[in-house]
Design goal:
Layout: H1 2-9, E1 41-44, E2 50-55, E3 61-68, H2 82-89, H3 101-108, E4 112-117, E5 122-129, H4 133-146, H5 151-170, H6 173-185, H7 199-204, H8 207-217, E6 223-229, H9 233-244, E7 267-273, E8 280-287, H10 295-306, H11 313-321, E9 325-332, E10 339-347, H12 353-370, H13 374-390, H14 395-408, H15 413-422, H16 426-436, E11 443-449, E12 509-513, E13 519-524, E14 530-538, H17 543-548, H18 553-561, H19 570-579, E15 582-589, E16 592-600, H20 604-616, H21 622-636, H22 643-655, H23 668-673, H24 676-686, E17 692-698, H25 702-713, E18 737-743, E19 750-756, H26 764-777, H27 785-793, E20 797-806, E21 812-820, H28 825-842, H29 846-859, H30 867-879, H31 890-896, H32 899-909, E22 915-921, H33 925-934
């Protein structure tokens, strides 16, 4: 489901700027203090604080992002990581807000909050209902002046950061790689230092160091406040003056000066790690930043040469023509003081590394001598305009982008950069290629897989539709998504506040039926001039995969369809998509297929015609199918080599033992079984309009959207008689407990996965209840019971993941994922079980109950912030076979949940006597045996 929702949520930020400080930029009706919705206005407080505002009245929320112009580039030698440490310490409270209260208050008030530190900036953002936004002003203005730096809390938080470092860097091959890459590329520039800090610096840092750094840089004149959302500008500026305007200025900080010697030699290194799946080559060049005169040309050079797109030169040469690589990516990175130009190539396992490197240099030389063609240059400019028109529409993302551009280059420079990009010439591309893509001053690096000798996969370990997730910037839920009430203290038995209902979505959706069986839902979009078509082909289980051992058949078929229609060659197809531009993609798994098409409204006819051509007349020839099979064979060859993945799937596949969920492992053997005839038969059998639902979101009226889709999709006819779809069997419960270690000395941390006994027929009212339970128990490392106990009080963990995982079949289980130091594994596991037992035996407090329900109810408007969010709700309803008004009745379902309901769900799914625990990392079987022998103390 996450993949499906993501399709609609990729549309974020909008970019239009104006200033209200400079008189030349005043709107014509400025004397009436009117501000145009969707435009940025600049304000400056008397203490030097910059405030940028944008009114947007589409959802009753306001986004508040406070950015300090400080990051790891500002850190003195020996104190690397101190910016990030201060970020953590500012969550430890003030005299007004005691430890843990800031996170709790924001969360209670249906707020979403986060903080992050980069090389060039530190930001704190809070997204709250409009009537609660004063909470954000009060919290941030208070901790700008009055954050507490207690020595005991500092020591404990350093342990949390050390665990964060183990997670992000020391036990993560990509973290190891980029830390070493930056340290090698830069000789003296502070960009060479990791934002999280070098280990030795973190261990010797004191709370006084952090406090002095805080008092120097965390001041109003060194900060930027960005406000986006449902407000009147004059009123929101009054709040800014009230809370921030009286804070005294800090020291006037000069712009830091850096010296980085010219690179005169070619540098290189190789990382060998068993978690690396495929050989990967990276070539990096030092360049200027976006702000430099050469920045726009370097930006487009990246799009032409190595963008992660089928239209880039290296993708075509390495992936398509010579079949040497699985993917290509790169381009100019966005940095404040200097830039890096990346080329990243993931190779096929048996490819010649020398050949791949030579091709890269060949393509660079061609660009140096010939430059791009006019059509090639126009394609990337068209794509640039398309993304700037369509990608940025959510308040939080708008605010994030404004904050970043303002901090790096000044927001007003965005328009300058935009126009410069559109005016880049072919000669400009040649010039920057010759000046900066120089082999003798590049840094070349390889990431190479290392075969494991100490772990194997048992015969019954198979892949399911659940996938492991990459480590995010913040692992707790409050810190990884924009959802999260009431500033007053909530007294026992206090009734729920009168939280407004979200606007119903069913009036926004029109349902239609085409003669060929397609069900169509139309949603009007007045935010951007685009058409987005999303299709769901519900096949039931693809039996060839689960029962005939041809796992991966659906993936292969989807990628064959992605090669385009029979009436175009592949090159013609890619050229067409790139030039307009149009986005079309098809995905498949053993439960069905999805497809989407996306374009500006003016290009919707070309997009729809091409999409229907693919679905009705794809290029199903032997050459294309063999090409895709070879690609998937290469992908499958290393899919289950990581100890983390092996450990997780040992747990998952034993929880779902002998069930369809444990019979979907894509291997080289299963790919080898798939023939050309299998792919053609699967296309005719499963790509069928009668089992298809389409959701279309567009800047047209409902009847216009209906007629547009009808015109193109009515030609899609069934290839075969519709077969009866097959569902999954019932899952069997666990009967015992198991704890198993997966030792791996390459990791410096241990990952703990806990899976409880699975269940069938999960009811959706239970899921609403489980969400409240999870909020109280374990959802956030900053506000939940387990999070506060293990992170705040004991400093044992950085983040925690917890959820009731379930599928479209209403089958699922409760799972935990936690990372900790090897010596803390037993404490963490026992701590989790202790808090679960305490909740079940003692119940939950009235305050917890009220806070959780208020939070869930207050969040509901955020789920429908844009038409694309509404579309994702429709997609969820289709996949999970829910009524279309399921979201509209969510408010009443949440409100009706009782404390007894929550305890019943806890007792049902948190089966303390039936579970599987797997631990991977630098841990031995002996360590686990002690835990087994002594039992888990609760």
């Amino acid at each position: 489901m996450k993949k499906i929702i993501k399709i609609f949520l990729i549309l974020t930020f909008i970019i239009i700027s104006k200033s209200i400080v400079i008189s030349d930029n005043l709107p014509q009706n400025a004397e009436n203090k009117k501000y145009e919705e969707g435009k940025v206005y600049r304000h400056t407080l008397s203490n030097g604080m910059t405030v940028l505002t944008m009114e947007r009245h589409n959802v009753p929320y306001i986004y508040h992002q406070l950015t300090y112009k400080v990051g790891s580039v500002n850190e003195p030698p020996g104190l690397t990581g101190i910016s990030h440490v201060v970020e953590h310490m500012m969550f430890k409270g003030t005299k007004k807000y005691s430890k843990g209260e800031i996170s709790k208050i924001i969360s209670q008030n249906s707020g979403v909050f986060n903080a992050f530190t980069t090389a060039d900036m530190t930001s704190y953002y809070i997204y709250l209902p409009k009537d609660k936004i004063e909470i954000a002003f009060d919290i941030e203005s208070d901790r700008m002046q009055n954050s507490t730096f207690d020595s005991t809390e500092f020591t404990r938080e350093i342990e949390v950061i050390l665990q964060e470092r183990r997670t992000r860097t020391e036990s993560n091959p990509n973290g190891i790689f980029y830390e070493n890459l930056n340290a090698l590329v830069f000789t003296l520039h502070p960009y060479r230092n990791p934002t999280i800090g070098w280990l030795n610096d973190l261990k010797k840092m004191t709370y006084k160091d952090a406090f002095n750094f805080y008092k120097t840089y965390y001041t109003p004149n060194n900060s930027i406040l960005v406000l986006v959302g449902d407000f009147e500008t004059d009123e929101i500026i009054k709040l800014a003056e009230k809370y921030y305007g009286k804070i005294p200025q800090g020291p006037q900080l000069p712009e830091p000066e850096f010296y980085e010697p010219e690179q005169k030699v070619k540098k290189s290194f190789t990382l060998v790690h068993s978690d690396i799946q495929s050989p990967t080559l990276s070539i990096v060049f030092k360049t200027p930043s976006f702000r430099d005169d050469d920045g726009p040309a370097l930006y487009l050079l990246g799009k032409i040469l190595c963008e992660k797109s089928r239209g880039s030169r290296l993708y075509k040469r390495l992936v398509e023509d010579e079949k040497l690589a699985l993917s290509v990516g790169g381009g100019l990175s966005m940095m404040k003081y200097a830039g890096l130009f990346y080329i990243n190539v993931v190779l096929n396992p048996d490819s010649s590394t020398d050949r791949v490197e030579q091709i890269i240099w060949d393509e660079i030389e061609k660009l140096k001598k010939e430059g791009p063609s006019e059509k090639e240059l126009q394609k990337v400019k068209n794509r640039f305009k398309f993304t700037q028109t369509t990608e940025y529409i959510k308040n939080a993302d708008i605010g994030m982008r404004i904050s970043t551009w303002e901090c790096y280059y000044g927001w007003d420079y965005y328009d300058v950069f935009y126009n410069k990009v559109l005016n880049v010439s072919a000669d400009d591309i040649k010039k920057v290629a010759n000046n900066f893509l120089i082999p003798e001053t590049s840094t070349l690096s390889w990431r190479i897989p290392k075969e494991k000798k100490n772990v194997t996969i048992s015969e019954d370990e198979e892949e399911s539709e659940e996938k492991t997730e990459p480590v995010k910037l913040f692992e707790n839920d409050d810190f990884s998504r924009f959802y999260l009430k009431e500033n007053e203290l909530i007294e026992p038995y206090k009734e729920l506040l009168n939280i407004p209902r979200p606007k119903p979505i069913t009036p926004l959706i029109k349902k239609h039926k085409l003669e060929n069986g397609i069900t169509l839902y139309t949603i009007e979009n007045k935010l951007v001039p685009t058409i987005l078509v999303y299709g769901i082909i519900n096949t039931g289980i693809i039996t060839e995969e689960i029962y005939e051992g041809k796992n991966g058949l659906s993936n292969v078929l989807a990628d064959v369809l992605n090669r385009g229609p029979a009436n175009l060659t592949y090159d013609e197809y890619v050229d067409k998509l790139s030039f307009y531009p149009i986005s079309i993609s098809i995905r498949g798994n053993y439960r069905g297929f999805t497809f989407e098409g996306y374009s500006l409204t003016e290009n919707s006819n070309e997009m729809l015609k091409t999409l229907v051509d693919i679905l009705t007349n794809p290029r199903l020839d032997t050459t294309e199918i063999k090409l895709i099979r070879d690609k998937h064979r290469a992908l499958a060859s290393r899919r289950f080599k990581s100890t983390k993945v092996i450990a997780f799937y040992y747990m998952f596949d034993n929880i779902f033992k002998n069930h369809e969920y444990s019979k979907n492992k894509i291997t080289t053997e299963s790919i080898n079984k798939i023939t050309t005839d299998d792919v053609i038969k699967a296309y005719k059998k499963y790509i069928n309009p009668q089992q298809t639902t389409i959701i279309v979101v567009g800047s047209l009226k409902h009847d216009e959207l209906f007629n547009l889709v009808k015109y193109y999709f009515s030609s899609w006819k069934s290839k075969e008689k519709l077969s009866t779809s097959k569902g999954v069997s019932k899952v069997q419960p666990l009967n015992d407990r198991e704890i198993k270690a997966f030792p791996d000395s390459e990791y410096t941390e241990c990952t703990i996965n806990i899976g409880f006994s699975p269940y069938n027929d999960i009811k959706f009212e239970e899921i609403e209840t489980a969400n409240i339970l999870n909020y109280i128990l374990a959802q956030s490392a900053l506000t939940s019971r387990i999070g506060v106990e293990l992170r705040d009080k004991q400093g044992l963990i950085y983040g925690i993941r917890s959820q009731l995982w379930y599928t479209r079949d209403r089958i699922g289980y409760w799972k935990f994922n936690i990372k900790t130091a090897p010596q803390n594994v037993t404490k963490v596991i026992e701590g989790i079980f202790k808090e679960i037992q305490k909740l079940i035996s003692e119940g939950i407090t009235d305050e917890e109950f009220t806070n959780a329900k208020q939070r869930m109810l207050g969040l509901l408007p955020l789920y429908t912030e844009t038409p694309y969010d509404v579309a994702s709700i429709v997609a969820e309803s289709i996949i999970y076979k829910l009524p279309l008004d399921n979201f509209d009745t969510k408010y009443d379902r949440i409100k009706s949940i009782s404390k007894d309901d929550i305890i019943k769900v806890a007792e049902k799914y948190l089966t303390l006597d039936k579970y599987i625990i797997v631990v991977d990392g630098p841990i031995t079987d002996e360590d686990i045996n002690k835990l087994k022998q002594n039992g888990i103390k609760k």
